[in-house]
Amino acid sequence: MTGYDESNYSHTPRILLFDIECTPMLGYTWGKWQQNVLKFTEDWWMLSFAYRWYGTNEKVKVRSLPMFPGYEDDLKNDEHLVKEMWELMNEADIVIAHNGDKFDVKKVNARFAVHGLPRPTPGQSVDTLKVARQSFAFSSNSLNDLGQFLDLGQKLSHAGFDLWLGCMAGEKKSWKIMEAYNKQDVVLLEQVYERFKKDGWIPRHPDIAILSGINNGCPICGSTERVKNGFYPTTAYRYQKYICKNDECQHHYRSAFAEPGSRSSYRRI
Fold it and tell me: Three-class SS of residue 28?
């Protein structure tokens, strides 16, 4: 039996852009503003999700409850929808969403657990909301506002909360608008993600070169074409810096290993 040969590893990372839409929870309160809920009468469920496999020729796709069997008998049964979402998450090496780490990923995980599904194959994530908060001081970090600040576009306008109520009641017109709204969110998400990535604003982006099995490749795009760009010093070592020569990337990164003989003989106190 031979061991695993890492040098023969080759893989094109599967990168999933996605956005979900859910219902609110229903409950009783004594008032209208900043109230404690006295009793919940109905928990939330998933209405739809939109997605696209990044770097492919596939268009944004949307899946909603009316597309699945049994919907007319039970407007709240999201089991088939959730299972399809699970298949996508299980296949993805990287997932990208706006506020995904706190909302979308945890929400779908909750529905996976409700329907008895195991944890999908663990992957990595890029949360464009986190990137916006860490790297900038925009006056708002919502996806809609980022799209407008960066002159990329905006979310689809709609009637507001009545759209969710219409879908919950099974209105076909509301579902048509919801599906278009959900799809546009992913279109805008991809544009914001690409702007951040191309301009080098995602310093902790999952390493595409490592995922692809490419030695000495750019961590953002995997290209091995690069030019040296000085050195990155720490308190003890010096690392070679590079600029990716891919015109669609041009990311700044450094070597994973210190320069030979660069270790300092001194320590700060």
Answer: strand
Q: Where is 40: in which H helix or E strand?
A: strand 39-42
What are the residue ranges spanned by the domains of the chain?
Answer: 11-198, 208-254
Element (H, E) at 176: helix 172-198
* Matching residue, tokens 């944004």: 60
Superfamily of segment(s) 11-198: Ribonuclease H-like superfamily/Ribonuclease H (3.30.420.10)
Distance CA 216, CA 254 (A): 10
Could you report the per-residue pLDDT of 40-53, keeping only the tens digit for each?
999 999 999 999 99
Q: What is the pTM of this model?
A: 0.88
Whether the CB-CB separation of 22 and 103 falls below 8 Å is answered with: no
Question: What is the identity of the amino acid at 122?
Answer: P
Give the pLDDT confidence of 130-184 residue by residue, as tens digits: 999 999 999 999 999 999 999 999 999 998 999 999 999 999 999 999 999 999 9
